[in-house]
């Protein structure tokens, strides 16, 4: 079996009545890397240019949360419940320790997991995401997002090419390459998310925007070495949310990319996977790598 | 000759009436790396833990601007004139192309050089610095700086240990190690800067805080691949200045370090020199490395 998200079969694991879809591929001496997906994204939204290089040093585990794709159940309306599903999934796989890559929505779930069960996680990579109490998280009605989202000429993944990337020629070229890579997987694909998934996840974003006590104080408890990554022109979850993460997490390095938006990890996949690999390879208690 | 700032002799070059002190050591296939120093710093303020690993792949050239250490002349009261000195120095060495590491004050001079003579520079590393129009640049009267600066118990480099590092135990331990490294050079040292140097450089900071036309618009012209680095607890030139750099320079990657202040490159010298080396080794037209 090739270690690639283009060909890796979707697997299933059951916890009571709940069935979780996932993919698991790669090997090496690194801890398994749990990958938590963005708003409405399924297993098919993981760019092989990101997952496959990471799978060359460890197992990569792509997780489909409850109510998404072929995972059963309903989509929770809060990050806390999504984190409980992710932890139940790790327990079902008998994984007692792993690293985590949380992208966008997935980065919020990763932060919640780190607070609820710190010892199950070693290192965190948080991309294009926000702390609890963050601002301007996925406000799809603002013009910079509403215009492409309501453009009838943009269908399917082409919408992602507009909203995940910057308007520059170079970023739009990277968007086209990204969409082509996502379409390389031709069989065993997940069903696309419908409006019910979007509505519930959007409720979870709104809940996450409310501080819980003193703003950002909860981040002090997440002492895991963390790599925070963001594109400087991110319209979906603006980069200032990553500034708050790196200023308030006690042990976080921040890396920002130019000329890019929410999908900076896809646009600069070679740099991102190189940096993530170096970060994950470090045995230090400190985040700098 | 060992390629180290502990032992490398101070050299001199003359341009008309002007004499510049400098050190030049190291070798390798990389372009020479011009290093531009912080407020009141001399050649002796370059941490060998930063300069020496970089000198393993290229020549490192430490430059003493006019009126500092054993360089003759008076200290200019604006970055533009300091940039002219640095360019005259490169011309005197017949260097037509190099990379530059500008730290704090030196990062402002590097930005000015990149605008005035773009082709002489290939890649920029800007650490703990600010764009023209930046804020809270070296306001030494604010309590977080005035208290250590006026503490009679803190003498010589011990002051740097307080104002360049964060108050945490781990950062203060890194400060002590930094000061010890600076004291390893025992001969051929530069005279420390006096109040006249500080006064003129402070005038240059104040001039740099005034936007020239639309704020940050000048940064669009600096298209060089740039690596921006800052500690998140920098009291001397707060990290938001690095955010503005990375958001407005069209081709810049930002790296921030936790648990550290103005001297983040000294505290995390292993990480910094690894990242800087990878950045300088890249042949790409894009900054991400």
Properties at a glance:
289 residues, globular, 8-stranded mixed β-sheet, alpha/beta, homodimer, 8 strands
3D structure, described in words:
The structure is a homodimer of 289-residue chains. The longest helix of chain A is centred in the first third of the chain and has 14 residues, at 79-92. The first copy, chain A, is 35% helix and 16% strand. The model of chain A has no long low-confidence stretch (mean pLDDT 97). Chain A has 289 residues and is of the alpha/beta class. At the A-B interface, helix 8, strand 8 and helix 10 of A face helix 8, strand 8 and helix 10 of B.
Summarize the structure.
Chain A has 289 residues and is α/β, with parallel strands linked by helices. Helix content of chain A is 35%, strand content 16%. Chain A has helices at residues 48-54, 79-92, 105-116, 143-149, 157-163, 169-182, 195-208, 240-248, 264-267, 269-281, and strands spanning 11-15, 18-25, 33-36, 60-63, 98-103, 121-127, 226-231, 252-257.
Q: Could you outline the blueprint of secondary structure elements for this entry?
A:
Two copies of one chain form a homodimer.
Chain A lengths: L10 E5 L2 E8 L7 E4 L11 H7 L5 E4 L15 H14 L5 E6 L1 H12 L4 E7 L15 H7 L7 H7 L5 H14 L12 H14 L17 E6 L8 H9 L3 E6 L6 H4 L1 H13 L8
Parallel strand pairs in A: 3-4, 3-5, 5-6, 6-7, 7-8
Antiparallel strand pairs in A: 1-2, 2-4
Helix pairs in contact in A: 1-10, 2-3, 5-6
């Amino acid at each position: 079996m090739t270690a690639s998200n283009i060909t890796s079969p979707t697997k299933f694991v059951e916890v009571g009545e709940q069935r979780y879809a996932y993919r698991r591929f790669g090997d090496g001496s690194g801890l398994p890397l749990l990958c938590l997906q963005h708003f409405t994204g399924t297993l098919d939204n993981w760019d092989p240019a990101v997952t496959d290089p990471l799978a060359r040093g460890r197992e990569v585990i792509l997780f489909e949360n409850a109510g998404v794709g072929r995972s059963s159940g309903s989509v929770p309306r809060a990050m806390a419940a999504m984190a409980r599903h992710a932890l139940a999934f790790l327990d079902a796989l008998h994984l007692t320790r792993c690293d985590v890559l949380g992208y966008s929505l997935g980065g919020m779930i990763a932060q919640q997991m780190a607070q609820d069960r710190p010892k199950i996680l070693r290192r965190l990579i948080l991309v294009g995401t926000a702390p609890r109490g963050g601002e301007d998280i996925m406000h799809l009605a603002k013009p910079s997002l509403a215009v492409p989202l309501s453009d009838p000429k943009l269908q399917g993944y082409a919408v992602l090419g507009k909203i995940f990337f910057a308007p520059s020629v170079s970023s739009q070229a990277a968007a086209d390459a990204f969409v082509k890579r996502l379409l390389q997987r031709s069989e065993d694909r997940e069903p696309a998310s419908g409006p019910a998934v979007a509505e519930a996840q959007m409720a979870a974003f709104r809940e996450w925007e409310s501080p819980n006590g003193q703003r950002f104080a909860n981040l002090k408890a997440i002492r895991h070495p963390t790599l925070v990554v963001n594109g400087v022109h991110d319209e979906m979850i603006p980069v200032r949310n990553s500034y708050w993460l790196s200023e308030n997490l006690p042990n976080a390095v921040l890396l920002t990319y130019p000329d890019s938006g929410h999908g900076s990890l896809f646009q600069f996949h070679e740099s991102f996977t190189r940096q993530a690999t170096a970060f994950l390879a470090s045995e230090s208690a400190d985040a700098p790598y």
